[in-house]
Design goal:
By secondary structure, the protein is of the alpha/beta class. It is built from five helices and six strands. The chain has a six-stranded parallel beta sheet with strand order 3-2-1-4-5-6, sandwiched between helices. Helix 5 links the parallel strand 5 and strand 6. The longest helix has 14 residues. The chain is globular, with a radius of gyration of 15 Å. The termini are far apart.
Length: about 130
């Protein structure tokens, strides 16, 4: 069973639909720090728990095994580090990180903690014939 948490509810709501549409998976927690959005979402999804800080996700639901990071780009690195160290598999929106230095740190942590990370990448300009 996949028990997921989503951070950010812009494009994160698309992640919610995808996860909920997959057999044997459930979104258990949503992290949203915009109070207006949070209150609206609580009414739409009464079975999901809500938190304002991503560090509270595992406090309210300890059996989370997948984290979906759809927060602002400059928050991705900090959130990735936190959940890699918690040994959670992660889906992260692009860009995964905003610097090569951060990417190298993530690579080391992934190797150390043995977690899986996937990201959606857009192929803007690809010439497979080159």
């Amino acid at each position: 069973m996949i028990n997921a948490a989503i951070i950010g509810t812009g494009v994160g709501l698309k992640h919610l639909q995808a996860i909920e549409g997959y057999r044997k998976s459930k979104v258990k927690v949503i992290c949203e720090n915009n109070l207006k959005k949070l209150n609206k979402l609580k009414k739409l999804y009464p079975k999901i728990r809500f938190v304002k800080n991503y560090k509270d996700i595992l406090k309210v639901e300890s059996n989370i095994n997948l984290i979906s990071i759809a927060s602002y780009d400059d928050n991705h690195f900090e959130q990735l580090v936190w959940f890699i160290k918690e040994r959670k598999d992660i889906i992260v929106e692009k860009p995964m990180v905003v610097s090569i230095k951060n990417l190298n740190q993530i690579k080391r942590l992934v190797s150390k903690y043995k977690v899986n990370i996937i990201s959606n990448l857009v192929l803007r300009e690809v010439d497979f014939l080159k």
